[in-house]
Specification:
Blueprint lengths: L17 H20 L10 E6 L6 H8 L5 H11 L12 E6 L1
Antiparallel strand pairs: 1-2
Length: 102
């Protein structure tokens, strides 16, 4: 009697290579570190800043206008609000503000 039965063939697996996993981990860590340091979505930060005390009649707009240097006052207002962590342009007399300058 002839049988069609074939003995099972042995499946050879590649040897375990921890180096590939280590390189993948290192590359992932480098990308994450780069993103956290500021490579992704980085914004320009002012190189210097001036502080000033708010006087009667001062508004964020008037302060921004006097420090805009001919640029867009709206951008300067946004920078002042951001630098001082203000959620609105309401300021008080005697308050000290950081005025970013480029």
């Amino acid at each position: 009697m002839i049988s069609d039965f074939q003995p099972a063939q042995r499946v050879l697996r590649r040897p375990y290579r921890p180096i590939g996993r280590a390189l993948l981990g290192a590359a992932s860590a480098a990308c994450i570190g780069w993103a956290l340091v500021g490579g992704v979505g980085a914004t320009t930060t002012p190189t210097a800043a001036v502080t000033m005390v708010v006087r009667p009649g001062d508004t964020v707009w008037s302060i921004a206008e006097s420090h805009s240097g001919g640029g867009d006052v709206r951008d300067e207002v946004a920078q002042i609000l951001s630098a001082n962590h203000l959620s609105s342009p309401v300021i008080q007399v005697g308050e000290t503000l950081v005025i970013p300058s480029d």
